[in-house]
Design brief:
The protein is α/β, with parallel strands linked by helices. It has eight helices and seven strands. The longest helix has 20 residues, at 103-122. Bound molecules: iron/sulfur cluster.
């Protein structure tokens, strides 16, 4: 466990979030809380970023070692008392599953998480809350009920047919190939094209779909709020560098 005398800042920053957003993560990507069943386990954008920025990776390990309740206590104590346009959980890593904690600890965790969500919402925040398994989606939808937030499940569908047969609020990564190496510009362009064709196909099936503009343009999360919007059933992320 890493301990320093300096006050620990529990938040992280990401260039794709609008100014004054807050982001809270509980562990490293493709480690700690991420389910191995995730289609992009070890290959996602966050894993690459943590490989590049080792201080961020250390910070996430520190969060994991101290535990989610510790992170939430720090976040609640240091929550800025001003308008918060956008709030995001798990920019790095994933949310813990219920089985990751003792039942009593889980209850404290849920209470603190609800408090944080409610306080940020009262300051104007719209929430992006992604989870990578159906089990977590069910759990967090139940635990955060009544707070007016969307829990968006990352669909693990291997085919477009399967993706379109699902019916909850979800996201999907459009990739001509999933791998751990670099995604060059021409590959990204092919993935954007695939994402757009999947979104078009979804709309033909009366599924409201958005291709993430933070990946396809200079837009940012918080300007686009699709992930927090219950009426957007499917958000498609082109696999990108
Ligand atoms: S679709 Fe919009 S809200 Fe969702 S990640 Fe992309 S920019 Fe952010």
């Amino acid at each position: 466990m890493i301990t320093t005398k300096k006050k620990h800042n529990p938040f992280t920053v990401a260039s794709k979030l609008v100014k004054k957003s807050i982001a809270i993560s509980f562990g490293r990507s493709a480690n700690d809380f991420c389910a191995k069943s995730c289609r992009v386990y070890g290959a996602c954008y966050a894993t690459r970023i943590e490989r590049m920025y080792t201080d961020l990776e250390k910070k996430m390990l520190n969060h994991y070692m101290h535990g989610p309740v510790w992170v939430l206590n720090k976040a609640l104590a240091q929550l800025p008392n001003r308008f918060i346009p956008w709030a995001r959980l798990s920019v790095d890593g994933a949310l813990p599953a219920k089985s990751d904690m003792e039942p009593k600890r889980w209850k404290v965790y849920v209470r603190k998480l609800r408090e944080l969500v409610a306080k940020c919402s009262a300051r104007g925040a719209k929430w992006h809350i992604p989870v990578e398994t159906m089990g977590k989606a069910r759990t967090y939808r139940k635990e955060l009920r009544g707070l007016g937030v969307v829990v968006r499940r990352s669909s693990q569908a291997r085919t477009v047919k399967k993706l379109l047969s699902e019916n909850d609020t979800r996201s999907w990564i459009a990739a001509t190939e999933i791998h751990k190496g670099c995604v060059n510009n021409s590959e990204k362009a092919r993935n954007v094209e695939l994402a757009q064709s999947v979104a078009t196909e979804a709309r033909k099936h009366n599924i409201s779909a958005v291709v993430c503009p933070a990946i396809t343009s200079d837009s940012q999360c918080g300007k686009c709020t699709a992930c927090s919007n219950e009426s957007v059933q499917l958000v498609v992320y082109p696999f990108h560098p």
